[in-house]
Every structure is written in structure tokens, then in C-alpha cells.
Design goal:
Rossmann fold
């Protein structure tokens, strides 16, 4: 009995016409970013484990798909005390970018504006809307220390969404320096605030009581005071320069015609953020459409100078279902030519080539006529074919 072949759990096949929509969305995103001067790069799916581990990637470091060593190295790893894996699939595009910049620093202009659309992998429990393989869509500015980087990243991202027909978005802003000041004000000095950030990041998902339970190791009155601060957001808790920067970012975005607001409950789970953090929300969906922040100095992990770095990532899997295909303008004329046999197909292939030269924007597809003509026509219509022509009636 033949085995039924399905995609690995938590991963999926993407079929037409969804795959075509995703391609067009990705191209539109890159086109908008190109207008801002962002250069496209590619990085490998695998990274050395020592690149991924210890990168302050939060819970994502626990979700790395590890890659076994090969050959003699695997034999060594199987011995007592040995390590079986030496590489892993990337869990985001930010850590690989820092490694990329450190590796190619002499070949890059600084500041460097970069765009990167690619799949990432996380070994988490699959559930509705959450996959083990998904696409991220990042822009980053390397080498710009001022909030001009934050403002441009937010503006470019909102322009992309607007260009995809997703208007009415708002940027929510906070700052890790402000958040750390609040945490230490109410919980005392922390050697590692990452666990606290991870717990606080779940506030909108599990509620204040569950977050307080995760922070049970800390003084309960301090935890309650911290949670109250998150609701009220007294910006004076942090350094004055932080509040000033937040205010300037908000006012700059307003002058550019964008909606933005301060949100003290915004945490983001990654531990590598060093300054402002931001997310994009939309009134029609209960989740953010994009997120990012400043993560200065990550390049220092890889032997390069600790450069200023700031990035924003669009949730590609969340955005694509919101895009109406009509945003790309009139659909291409698609003509299917169905033929009764090989001789007719060969003749129509020649004629179709002539037709493409006459009408480059159109699609002419030569196909063998199926036994179930009605089903074939329905399938072609689903794929956007507006005309189905019999091969014997097709002429140049």
C-alpha cells in the first residue's frame, strides 16, 4: 500500500494561486524598499550553532532545528561527552545579518541599508496560524546611531503596508532602556532581565495574573507595581534622554503623516534589543503585522566593531492573507489552449510563441485536453484563466 505523502507537521505546501500572490507581495515589498535605497542580500539557511546560541534570541534559542555532524565528526560526537550537532537552521534573519555584516564589513558601505526576505525555522508546537517554517521580511540599517534610523524603518514599513492596500496601521513604540529602568525600579537590580522580558511579553496573551505567576520568584508587591506601570506608562521612570528620543520619534512620524503612539506594554521577547522597540498594529486584526527595534553592538560577537544596528520585520505570513489581489492592478490576460493530441499541441506551441511576442503581458498556455473537460475548465478558472480555447480553433 502506497504511503500518503504529506508535508512535515508544522510545515506546508503552498499551491496556486496563493503561491503567485505571495510572489507578488514579496516583489511589491522589495520594490518599495528599493525606493528607499535598501539593498537585497541572501544568507544561508544554516548557521553554526555558536552563531545562533547565545545571541539573546529569547525562547527562540530553545527552538533551534539542529543539524547533525557528518562523517567522522559525527562518529566523534557519538562518543561519551560528544556533541552531535554543529549547525542549525536560522530562527530569524537578525542574527544572521549581524554575522553577515561582520564577515563582509570591508566590502559594505557604512551606513548600510539592507533588505532580506527568506524562510526561517522554529521547532515549536504547530497550531493554527503558527508554523515551524515561515517567511520573514526584514529591513535593517547598519551604522546609523540616531533615531533617524527608527523613523525611516517605521515609515518605510508603513509605506509598504499602504502600498499593499493595508491602510489604517499604527506604530506602537517603547524603549528597552525605559523598560529596564521600570523593571529595576520595582524588582531591583537584575543580572539577566531576559526572563522578565519574556514573561512581560505574554501580558496581552495570558493576562496579568498569569504573568505575575511566572514572576513568582520576585517580590509580589514589586511585580504588581511593575504591572501597574505597564498599564499607566510613567515615562519619567527612565533616563530623560530616552523620553526625549521617544518623543522625537513620535513627532517625526506624525510629520511624515503616520499614526504612532507610545505603548509601555510593548516588550518584544528578544533579549538583544538595546533601545527603541516597535510594532505595527491594525484595528481589524488582534495581532501585530510587523515588529522590530534597535540592537546595537551585535556585530561585536563576531569580532567586528560593535556597530549601531536597527531593524524592522514584516510578518509576511500575517500580511499575505490581508492583501486583495486587485491591489496589483488588472489581472494579466490568461489564455489556455486545450489540445486533442500531440500533433495539435506541437502546432499550438508554435502559434502560442508568436502570440506571446505580439502580447508580452499575456499568458498563453498549451495543455492537453483532460477527459473531464468541466473540471479542467473550473481548475483553469481558479488559476485566473479568463479564456479557454480549443486547439483546433487557435490561430496566430
Amino acid at each position: 500500500m502506497a504511503q500518503r505523502a504529506q508535508a512535515v507537521r508544522g510545515m506546508r505546501d503552498i499551491v496556486p494561486p496563493e503561491a503567485e500572490l505571495r510572489r507578488r507581495v514579496a516583489n511589491r515589498i522589495l520594490d518599495v524598499y528599493a525606493g528607499y535605497g535598501y539593498e537585497v542580500i541572501e544568507t544561508p539557511a544554516f548557521e553554526d550553532l555558536d552563531v545562533l546560541v547565545g545571541s539573546d534570541g529569547g525562547d527562540n534559542e530553545k527552538l533551534i532545528f539542529k543539524v547533525l555532524k557528518r562523517g567522522a565528526k559525527l562518529d566523534e560526537g557519538l562518543r561519551p561527552g560528544g556533541e552531535l550537532a554543529d549547525a542549525g537552521l536560522r530562527f530569524d534573519l537578525t542574527v544572521p545579518l549581524a554575522r553577515f555584516v561582520a564577515n563582509h564589513l570591508n566590502d559594505l558601505p557604512i551606513p548600510f541599508k539592507v533588505a532580506h526576505i527568506a524562510p526561517v525555522w522554529r521547532a515549536e508546537r504547530p497550531q493554527r496560524g503558527r508554523f515551524r517554517e515561515f517567511t520573514q521580511c526584514d529591513i535593517d540599517i547598519v551604522g546609523e546611531p540616531s533615531i533617524a534610523a527608527e523613523v525611516e524603518l517605521c515609515s518605510a514599513t508603513l509605506d509598504v503596508l499602504e502600498n499593499l492596500g493595508i491602510g489604517g496601521c499604527t506604530v506602537r513604540l517603547n524603549d528597552r532602556r525605559l523598560l529596564r529602568a521600570a523593571v529595576e525600579t520595582y524588582l531591583g537590580p537584575l543580572h539577566n532581565a531576559g526572563a522578565v522580558y519574556i514573561a512581560l511579553d505574554k501580558l496581552d496573551k495570558i493576562g496579568a495574573d498569569a504573568v505575575a505567576a511566572e514572576l513568582a520568584a520576585y517580590d509580589s508587591l514589586g511585580v504588581q507595581a511593575l504591572l501597574k506601570w505597564l498599564q499607566e506608562g510613567d515615562i519619567s521612570v527612565g533616563p530623560g534622554a530616552v523620553a526625549e528620543d521617544l518623543g522625537q520619534t513620535l513627532s517625526s512620524l506624525a510629520r511624515l503623516g503616520h499614526s504612532a503612539r507610545f505603548d509601555p506594554t510593548l516588550v518584544r521577547g528578544m533579549g538583544y534589543y538595546t533601545g527603541q522597540i516597535f510594532e505595527v498594529s491594525h484595528p481589524d486584526v488582534p495581532y501585530s503585522l510587523a515588529g522590530g527595534g534597535r540592537y546595537d553592538g551585535m556585530t561585536a560577537r563576531f569580532g567586528a566593531p560593535g556597530l549601531p544596528m536597527c531593524g524592522f520585520s514584516i510578518g509576511f505570513e500575517r500580511v499575505c492573507p490581508l492583501v486583495d489581489p486587485s491591489v496589483f492592478g488588472p489581472a494579466r490576460r490568461k489564455v489556455a489552449i486545450t489540445c486533442a493530441g500531440e500533433e495539435e499541441m506541437l502546432r499550438c506551441l508554435e502559434l502560442a510563441r508568436l502570440k506571446r511576442a505580439q502580447e508580452p503581458a499575456a499568458v498563453f498556455s498549451v495543455l492537453r485536453r483532460a477527459r473531464n473537460v468541466r473540471k479542467q475548465q473550473d481548475d483553469l478558472e481558479r488559476l485566473g484563466y479568463s479564456e479557454v480555447v480549443e486547439g483546433r480553433d487557435f490561430s496566430a
